[in-house]
Amino acid sequence: MSDALVIGVLALQGDVREHLVALAAAGAVARPVRRPEELAEVDGLVIPGGESTTISKLAVLFGLMEPLRARVRDGMPVYGTCAGMIMLADKILDPRSGQETVGGIDMIVRRNAFGRQNESFEAAVDVKGVAGDPVEGVFIRAPWVESVGAGAEVLAEHGGHIVAVRQGNVLATSFHPELTGDHRVHALFADLVRARRTAESL
Ligand SMILES: NC(=O)CC[C@H](N)C(=O)O
């Protein structure tokens, strides 16, 4: 087995390329994942921003929904941004009919909570676990987290709303660090993936 840390990006829809670049900058071998066989080969996975209803539908269509749930249950580290955060919520407050999630974080999210596309904004966000200056948060039709259960840890808030959460190896942010050139959140995630791999090989 090679020593390289292999992190996939779910490549059904959304800003896949930006995550591949950010993960490579964080020291991982980054690969797009579209098929269950590709999912089986990665140490960790990013679910990008995009449109959660579309990603959900395509995940079912490509036969990825159950394998995704199984790997998350099994402890594979996963990081979701924006639509990806929605995919990792155990519950959506306002799902489109038939919209499913992978789940993994005991939280309830509200889609498009920060407003429409033209109300997108940037804000400095202090993220627990990211040292130094606040992260520049890019919010694009972003969800927020209405509430978290006991197992989930809030990592950041903006305007009184929860915008970053972690539960075990599952990490989610309402905003898009992959769009800023600041790779500290991806580095934090790569550390999670590395720690999990080390734990597994003991
Ligand atoms: N930038 C984004 O990922 C937007 C998310 C989108 N509003 C959704 O519901 O999936």
Give a short summary of the structure.
This protein has 202 residues and is α/β, with parallel strands linked by helices. The chain is built from 6 helices and 12 strands. A hairpin with a 2-residue loop joins β10 and β11.
What is the helix tally? Answer: 6
Rg measurement, Å: 15 Å
Share of helix, binned: 25-40%
In percent terms, what proportion of residues is strand? 25-35%
Q: Using the alpha-carbon principal axes, give the shape.
A: globular
Average pLDDT rating: 96
Q: Write out the distinct hetero groups bound to the structure.
A: glutamine
Description:
Catalyzes the hydrolysis of glutamine to glutamate and ammonia as part of the biosynthesis of pyridoxal 5'-phosphate. The resulting ammonia molecule is channeled to the active site of PdxS. By secondary structure, this protein is of the alpha/beta class. The chain has one domain (6-201): Class I glutamine amidotransferase (GATase) domain (Rossmann fold). Helices cover 28% and strands 30% of the residues. It contains 6 helices and 12 strands. It has helices at residues 16-25, 36-40, 52-61, 65-73, 83-87, 184-201; strands at 6-10, 29-33, 44-47, 78-81, 89-92, 105-110, 121-125, 135-139, 144-148, 153-158, 161-167, 170-173. Strand 11 and strand 12 form a beta hairpin. The longest helix is centred in the C-terminal third of the chain and has 18 residues, at 184-201. It is globular. The relative contact order is 0.18. The model has no long low-confidence stretch (mean pLDDT 96). Bound molecules: glutamine. Glutamine (GLN) binds at residues 49-52, 82-83, 86, 111-112, 140-141. Glutamine is lined by residues 49-52, 82-83, 86, 111-112, 140-141.
